[in-house]
Amino acid sequence: MKTLTCNNHFFQQTISKRVLSIINELLVLDIGPKIIFPRGERLINHLFVVVVFSLVFVGIAEVMYWLYKKEYLRAKAKYLRELIDQKNDLSSLNEPFYTCVYEKWNSGEMPLTEANTMCSLKFDQN
User: Fold this and answer.
1) What average pLDDT does this structure show over 69-96?
2) Following DSSP, what letter does each residue of 60-99 receive, concatenated?
3) Exposure string over 91-116, b if 16+ CB within 10 A, otherwise e
């Protein structure tokens, strides 16, 4: 039981030393040339901070990417539904334009934005 208490005390001292070394490293007055030539313990602290920052940065970037991609795909799906509705509306004056865009996109000839631009140029000239 006594060895367990000694081991627990030693573990607590080690943890407190590690935490204090990180705190001391972050103090403004302690920065000097020690950052340029870090010792082993200091180097481990620097690497820990860099790794944690990198993981947080990548995590936030991934979340933002997938959220915006989801919004983009929703907007594209809404546009395609409207495009198909307009193409199928034979009484519309713009039916040839929407048919042109849909056919160029559906055939795989070009992406949706390029097909829209190409057909708008084609029908503006006529």
Assistant:
1) 82
2) HHHHHHHHHHHHHHHHHHHHHHHHHHHHH-TT-TTHHHHH
3) eeeeeebbbbbbebbeeeeeebeebb
Q: What share of the chain is helix, strand, coil (3-state, %, to 5)?
A: 80, 0, 20
Comparing CA positions, the residue from 121, 86, 122, 123 lying closest to residue 102 is: 86
Chain segment 25-51, per-residue pLDDT in tens: 665 555 555 555 556 677 788 888 899
Give me the amino acid identity at 94: N
Residue 21 has pLDDT above 60, yes or no: yes
Sign of the alpha-carbon dihedral angle for 12, 13, 18, 19? positive
